[in-house]
Design brief:
heterodimer, A: Fumarate Reductase Iron-sulfur Protein, Chain B, domain 2, 2 domains, B: Rossmann fold, 4-stranded parallel beta sheet, binds iron/sulfur cluster
Chain lengths: 438, 259
């Protein structure tokens, strides 16, 4: 019976990590539902971006308050993980504060003291985040798409962090032996008096409970990631690595279109010629995107990486002037639909069974898509290099090339380009008239 | 006004230093035509050997592409590339950031590789080479604010050339609260120029004009014919035509140099 806690701990660890790994595999399968796109060129530049933007948080600090608070939580999160390593070793081997003997009282005390200060800072930062989200009227937290789960999710993460930090401090405060050693508890020493009247046994029970809930909480939080915008703590890294390196104004030249246009413009091509051997069965290429599987894997990874911070939307000219379009919503819709497709595949033994739905219309309306000015403000603003504009453009392509469903005025513009070589109805022969006016 | 065409040049067996890509707005739109003429005056003053395609120029296809019509875009692109390559064009300058972006970034993938300049970059080079001087007395003391065109700024990270030129005019350059990479769109991009805006509570160009008016400018400087139209409309909407002018940087330079 003496080993029961160790066994339980090992079991919890295996279950927690196992479930997480299972979900990550599902995540990776879903992302791979996207079309291929080559983003392996220029590795040094990619690495540099990842280090600067994901690790160095360079785009976060463009908004100083949320930037600095975020860095506190982020640094706190990474460093306090060293403590989690100790917890895991202690849990598995039944040791107690194994690093203390290992590192020596002086350094260990310094380390724990440092963690405690970080934990307190994280706690304060998280409380400020909560107040910003729930009390102050910051527009980007209050828009339509932030109702319901997204709002709850944002708060859940904050509650999780508050509880985990509290548990960490309580754990230190009730660790009698640790307190006795007086080697480094700058914050938890102020919590100890709360337990003054308690028996040693009760205090020990509280310490053990705090310890257990802390580690179980971390395992639950780990598994919560997959269901949450908090997934960005992992995906921000690949997402910034594989982000577009080309100038933002450079849109892809659809290759399938190039082939057709070349055929059309080639005077020697015979439009009635039988397709070459083996191509009869080829499925005609679909132009643009109406569902998530028409998007590429980077766009799908973008959707999972989105932190729903709304920086994109708060800089979007269409959104700022009250139009339906919100680039954040484009990303959230893409993720929601992708999750739906993933669940469909799981329920149908690995193949997708048509559910009569798609990203277009069921999630994103043409009205949203047509409001975009392609100004790239959303792309510029995103702290993790997400490109909502590329999804908008791919869906417009579908609307125009597959459904001929452009707004009437745009159809006129396009007819003019086709007939007169200009978006207006002027005669191409008049193109140089400007030179002789005045 | 002497504006030679590539066809004329070819007939004389000459190859100009640079092709001026006028663009649809610069060719047909009454307001934008003035920008084209101002730029040509500058080219003349600097003795630049240039030519235009004239009736052989066609839409770059930018608006079609942003509207989602990749077919039409690529047809336009391939036709234009055939003409450009036929004349062995190497260097292109344009006053239109949309043409600039498309020619520079999207044509190479379809076989059209050129060195492409926005007119503010080109003029800056002329100054650096000592071929052009800007008179900094004519407009002295005016308050000027510059509206970054999305397709020049964020899309291609050209923020400094227009500002350098404005500073050379001897004016006071004041920045709007949203500028450079955080600039607000004028509302014309992505083919919005050619359709009514979706339902909302304001027009984008009015919001952007409000940004500009906050700096209390005498002149709003632009570097894009579409921005120019949008800001001009915004100023009219705000009934500020009497106090504030909207001018392309080429027009300001032509004015400063009394061309
Ligand atoms: S590119 Fe489109 S979605 Fe993005 S900020 Fe501009 S208008 Fe909004
Ligand atoms: S796309 Fe980027 S900027 Fe927009 S909400 Fe998501 S993470 Fe934030």
């Amino acid at each position: 019976m003496q080993y029961l806690p160790n066994i339980l701990f090992a079991l919890a660890l295996v279950l927690g990590v196992g479930f997480f790994v299972m979900n990550i595999r599902k995540l990776s399968r879903n992302i791979k539902l996207g079309k291929d796109v080559n983003r392996t060129d220029n590795k040094p530049e990619r690495l540099k971006n990842m280090i600067k933007i994901a690790l160095g948080q360079s785009k976060m600090v463009k908004r100083p308050l949320s930037g600095v608070l975020h860095i506190i939580v982020y640094v706190g999160f990474i460093i306090i993980n060293i403590e989690v390593l100790e917890i895991i070793i202690d849990g598995l081997f039944g040791t107690h504060r194994v690093f203390r003997g290992f590192l020596g009282d002086g350094f260990y005390g310094f380390l724990i003291g440092f963690f405690e200060i970080l934990a307190a800072l994280v706690f304060i930062a998280v409380v400020v985040f909560w107040l910003r989200r729930n009390i102050s009227n910051i527009k980007r937290f209050l828009t339509k798409e932030m109702k319901g789960w997204p709002k709850k999710d944002g708060n859940n993460i904050l509650y999780f962090e508050m509880v985990l930090m509290t548990l960490f401090l309580v754990m230190n405060a009730t660790d009698f032996h640790f307190q006795q050693a007086a080697i480094g508890n700058p914050i938890s020493q102020f919590i100890t008096p709360l337990f003054d009247g308690f028996s040693l046994e009760t205090i020990h029970t509280i310490e053990r409970s705090a310890w257990w809930i802390h580690i179980l909480g971390i395992l639950v939080f780990l598994n919560y990631l997959y269901y949450s915008k908090h997934l960005h703590i992992l995906l921000a890294f690949p997402n910034t690595y594989y982000a577009n390196l080309k100038p933002k104004g450079q849109f892809t030249n659809l290759e399938s279109v190039t082939n057709e246009v070349k055929l059309m413009m080639d005077p020697d091509a015979d439009p009635y010629a039988a397709p070459p051997e083996g191509e009869e069965e080829a499925i005609p290429e679909k132009f643009g995107a109406s569902d998530v599987t028409d998007l590429n894997w980077v766009q799908l990874m973008n959707a999972y990486t989105c932190t729903e911070c709304g920086r994109c939307t708060s800089s979007c000219p269409a959104n700022l002037t009250g139009k339906e379009l919100s680039p954040r919503k484009i990303m959230m819709d893409t993720r929601d639909r992708l999750e739906e497709v993933g669940r469909n595949i799981d329920a149908n033994k690995g193949t997708f069974v048509d559910d009569g739905k798609q990203l277009l219309n069921d999630y994103i309306s043409p009205e949203e898509l047509w409001a975009c000015t392609s100004c790239n403000a959303c792309v510029e603003e995103c702290p993790v290099n997400i490109d909502p504009l590329s999804i908008i453009m791919d869906m417009r392509r579908y609307l125009v090339m597959e459904e001929s469903a452009a707004p009437q005025e745009l159809n006129m513009m396009m007819t003019n380009i086709e007939n007169n070589g200009a978006p207006w109805q002027y005669n191409q022969q008049d193109r140089l008239n400007w030179a002789n006016e005045e | 006004m002497n504006v030679p065409t590539m066809a004329d040049m070819m007939a004389q067996g000459k190859q100009p230093e640079v092709l001026f890509w006028v663009g649809a707005a610069g060719s047909y739109d009454d307001r934008a035509k003035k920008i084209s003429r101002a730029f040509v005056k500058i080219l003349h003053q600097a003795n630049v050997d240039f030519a235009v395609l004239g009736t052989e120029e066609s839409s770059t296809g930018d608006a079609a592409k942003r509207a989602g019509n990749e077919f039409l875009f690529q047809m336009q692109a391939m036709m234009n590339i055939e003409v450009l390559n036929g004349y062995e064009v190497k260097k292109i300058v344009t006053c239109d950031p949309h043409s600039f972006n498309t020619l520079k970034n999207e044509y190479p993938g379809l076989g059209g590789k050129y060195e492409v300049f926005h007119h503010t970059q080109f003029i800056q080079n002329l100054i650096a080479e000592g071929r052009l001087k800007i008179d900094d007395t004519t407009l002295k003391g005016k308050r000027v604010t510059f509206h970054d065109p999305c397709y020049l700024g964020r899309a291609n990270e050209v923020y400094e050339s227009p500002r350098e030129l404005i500073k050379r005019l001897g004016v006071n350059l004041t920045e709007m609260k949203r500028n450079k990479s955080t600039a607000l769109c004028c509302g014309a991009g992505g083919a919005q120029m050619f359709k009514d805006a979706e339902k909302g509570d304001k027009e984008i160009n009015v919001l952007r004009t409000e940004d500009a008016l906050e700096t209390k400018p005498n002149i709003i400087a632009t570097g894009c014919p579409y921005c120019n139209t949008m800001m001009t409309d915004g100023i009219k909407f705000k009934e500020k035509e009497a106090e504030v002018e909207v001018k392309d940087i080429a027009e300001l330079i032509a004015e400063a140099n009394k061309l």
